Amino acid sequence: MGHMIKVNVNGKEHSGGVEARTLLVDYLREDLGLTGTHVGCDTSSCGSCTIHIDGKAVKSCTMLAVQADGCNVTTVEGLATNGNLHPMQEGFKEEHGLQCGFCTPGMMMTAIDFLKTNPKPSEDEIRHALEGNFCRCTGYHNIVKSIQYAANKMQTSV
Amino acid sequence: MIPSSFEYKRANSVSEAVEMIDADAQILSGGHSLIPALKLRLNNPGTLIDISKIDALKEISDNEKSITIGAGATHASIASSSVLEKHAPMMVQAAREIGDIQVRNVGTIGGSIAHADPAADWPAVLLASNATVVIQNKDGNREVDIDQFFKGFYETALNEGEIITAIRIPKTAANKNSVYVKFKQPASRFAIVGCAVALDKDGGNVADVRIGLTGVSESAYRASSVEKALSGNTLDDGLIESAVADVTEGNAVMSDHYASEKYRKHLAGVYVKRALRKLL
Predict the structure, then answer these.
(1) Phi and psi of A41, rounded to 5°?
(2) Which of B35, B76, B102 has the CB atom closest to A132's CB atom?
(3) Please, what is the Cα angle at B72 between A68 and B131, to 5 degrees?
(4) What is this structure's pTM?
(5) Which domain holds residue A12?
(6) Residue by residue, what is the 3-state secondary structure of A26-50?
């Protein structure tokens, strides 16, 4: 079917055929069964489909699966290692950073990329970094606290 | 939302991409204007030619008299460019204001200006910078002055079969002293009004000034009347106030549910003034 692609997702090689028009988010959810990446607005606004491509946060509803050929993809399912939560996941748990949970995977994927370039952000910088992620529960206050928790934890663990 | 079917071809070089183009093909770079349009089926190309894997298009290089930005440079890479920060700070400021982290990681400057959205940031900044657009087609390269590049509503000087390969920003005293400010649509972060100013002062007098405005009219434009009013005069609050009187002169002002014509015109004046005051 269509184009053969080879993608490393969460450390595991996947290869298969995709139609050229298949969106990356649909490939991850439908073909690979990785449903932790959500489809919210489907118009590159809400950020709930955010994943990492070669370590950078991108909106997977606005990318074709064929464009990920040869890339390393990380989804929310790839954050925990050996059963240990990623500091960001731990932060969202400890600080009650989620209510309905729909936006959470995208929030975490964006925040992890953000902390790479700004490991000690101010509250204001965190709020600005989340401009491409919407929480319809309006739970931003605890989301910011969760990211602060993760930033502190990642600082002390380095 | 799923786009209509199309054929996908990946180009390994611009020359290869140029050879692949036919009347029914579109160029895919970052895809952050094109893919949303495909999903809404506002755009139904027969073939997409992917140039996003061509590394040569992503470089930002520091030359003697100019800075060359590859058309495939992302907004994020421009936002973090120290050479642009030094020689044309408005470029870096604008890049940081585009969309959000995820959009900036993928969207490209070449794709943005080829698309020529009337509310995009780059057109205003590039007009103010006196940039040159480098274009490749089957016959070779050609260069277009930015003043001749934007032709109207989503319309540019690009002909069929052409690809933007680079944008060249001259190292001028004005570009070194430049600023970008915008009033953004709160959800999309597109500019309702965006204003870029590059200004060189000789003593207190304005020796060279270029002002680009986006979001105001069907296409980004230079506020020539303001430039003329400022040139040769002493830059102070009084001059700034009087210079912006005809900021939209010669341009039809857009009106939509975010901002009426009257409000947009008012905002254009306010944002030109804010930009100029930052350069006092």
Answers:
(1) -85, -25
(2) B102
(3) 165
(4) 0.96
(5) 3-78
(6) HHHHHHCCCCCCCCCCCCCCCCCCE
**Domain-embedded: residue B2:** no
Question: Do A93 and A42 belong to one domain?
Answer: no
CATH number, domain containing residue A100 = 1.10.150.120
Min Cα separation B95/chain A (Å)? 14
> Cα dist. B78→A51, A58, B94, B102, B214 in Å?
22, 17, 9, 14, 19
ipTM for the assembly: 0.96
The distance of B136 to chain A (nearest Cα, Å) reads 23
Q: What is chain B's pLDDT, residue by residue, as a tens digit (280 residues)?
A: 899 999 999 999 999 999 999 999 999 999 999 999 999 999 999 999 999 999 999 999 999 999 999 999 999 999 999 999 999 999 999 999 999 999 999 999 999 999 999 999 999 999 999 999 999 999 999 999 999 999 999 999 999 999 999 999 999 999 999 999 999 998 788 999 999 999 999 988 999 999 999 999 999 999 999 999 999 999 999 999 999 999 999 999 999 999 999 999 999 999 999 999 999 9
| Residues A19 and A38 grouped into a single domain | yes
Picking from A21, A45, A58, the nearest residue to B106 by CB comes out as A58
Domain assignment of residue B223, given as a range? 177-278
**A20 with B39: Cβ contact below 8 A:** no
